[in-house]
Amino acid sequence: MINVEDIKKDFPIFKRKINNLPLNYLDSGATSQKPKQVLKAMNDVYTNSNANVHRGTYILSAETTEAYENVRNKCKEFINAPSSDEIIFTRGTTDGFNLLAQALTKNRLDPGDEILLSEIEHHANIIPWQLVAKEFGLNINFVDVDENFEINFDDLSSKLNKKTKIVSLTGESNIAGTIPNIKEINSLVKEKSNALFIVDGAQLVPHRSVDVQDMGIDFITFSGHKMLGPTGIGVVWGKAELLNGMEPVFGGGDMIEEVYFDKAKWAPIPHKFEAGTPPYVEAIGLGAAIDYLNNLGMDNVEKHSDQLRAYGKELLKEIDAVKIIHSKGEKAGCTFSLYIEGVHATDLSIMLDTYGIAVRAGHHCVQPFHRKLGIDATFRATCYIYNQEKDLDNFKASLEKSLEVLI
Q1: 342: left (phi over 0), alpha (psi -120 to 50) or beta
Q2: Using CB atoms within 10 A as the burial measure, which of 92, 159, 191, 286 is most buried?
Q3: What CA–CA distance (Å, rounded) separates 258 from 213?
Q4: Which domain range does residue 146 map to?
Q5: Are residues 186 and 304 in the same domain?
């Protein structure tokens, strides 16, 4: 079990007061807070062993290179990938999707081929595909999301065909907490098409045990900053046979074996996708974040999320004016997007801030789905390991006080 009070002692930011009130942080869907273990790991590099990786024969460079590459192995084990060579470091989930969109479409897809997404995707899993679709004459289709905020399996099945070459879906929705049955979807994708299946793991990987081999998927991408790590570091995992067949997207130092005036020979995976000086300090911070989560146990992290989700779902139903966008599926993340007719989400989030409560207002980079629902914006509460039931109690009480002013 997770002891939240003990955990919060590891996070310096929770010493902060907002309007002389304790910080009630309910915006981990946007970014997580960082424990002192992550901050220390990064500071140790800068103060004791800072040097560029892969390029030095001296002790500092060797130490930093070893620490950096060790994180690749930690990532491999964290998602049960077959090989650390399949772990590509990126700047984050968005960067990962742009890399995949560019690398997978060049010399692989023909005009008229189809990319299949869902209506509930984050912009990071839409716009990169729109860019390549326009460039290469591809078509993008969207799977319906039903009234339970679940991906419509029948509609997915009907839209898969021989022209479908890429299916890219959320592993956990950042607006409704929806967690699709990835294994079942993967089986359907392979049965009805020859498509590659990509999972957006930005919200999934921080909260649940992920086993890419058990899922059977082809790629997953996720960010460090949503799982207690720093910004500027993320991961793309892909099957080695697919990565080996992909051309690099970025060129420069460290992604080559040999360079001539008229040509170059690429380095093997993973390095052919990692041009230039990598974010090695951020990667080491990610490694410390993985250590922290492993020490807690991802099964415990998942149970904690499920408990908060169940509590929050019932609690928020008690406010009549609030309409909730949240998955009605058996399994879902602790993510609640809310709206109140006649009250703008931004006004509510500003009012809640006066009570020390941090929530996010807007379309949460899921604007097409908001548009489908006929809503301009929602305010969103998301939980993580340092949240507990009393945070949701305070959120509800502060929301009710705010509504007395705004309605």
Answers
A1: left
A2: 286
A3: 33
A4: 39-294
A5: no
pLDDT tens per residue across span 200-236: 999 999 999 999 999 999 999 999 999 999 999 999 9
Q: Do residue 233 and residue 313 come from a single domain?
A: no
Of 272, 294, 316, the domain-final residue: 294
Quickly list DSSP for 101-156.
HHHHHTTT--TT-EEEEETT--GGGTHHHHHHHHHHT-EEEEE-B-TTS-B-HHHH
Distance CA 331, CA 309 (A): 10
Total of domains in the chain: 2
Amino acid identity for residue 23 in this structure: L
Are 327 and 178 contacting, i.e. CB atoms less than 8 angstroms apart?
A: yes
- As a whole number of angstroms, the distance between CA 129 and CA 142 comes to 12
Does 407 map to a domain?
Answer: no
Final residue belonging to a domain, choices 249, 265, 294:
294
Residue-wise pLDDT tens digits, 126-166: 999 999 999 999 999 999 999 999 999 999 999 999 999 99
Cα–Cα distance for residue pair 174/362, rounded to 1 Å: 12
Q: What is the DSSP letter of 171?
A: S
| CA separation for the pair 231, 116 (Å, rounded) | 29
Q: In the structure encoding, which two tokens stand for residue 364, read together?
A: 């949460």
Report the distance separating Cα 144 and Cα 146, nearest Å. Answer: 6
Rounded CA-CA distance 42/277 in Å is 16
Which residues have a catalytic role annotated? 365
Residues 290 and 310 both lie in one domain: no
61-104: pLDDT as tens digits? 999 999 999 999 999 999 999 999 999 999 999 999 999 999 99
Residues 210 and 77 both lie in one domain: yes
Q: Closest by alpha carbon to 196, among 215, 168, 170?
A: 168
Q: What's the start-to-end Cα distance of the chain, in Å?
A: 40
How many residues are listed for the chain in this entry?
A: 407
Q: Which residue type sits at 120?
A: I
| Co-location of 131 and 277 in the same domain | yes
The reported pTM is 0.97
Do 322 and 275 belong together in one domain? no
247 located within any domain: yes
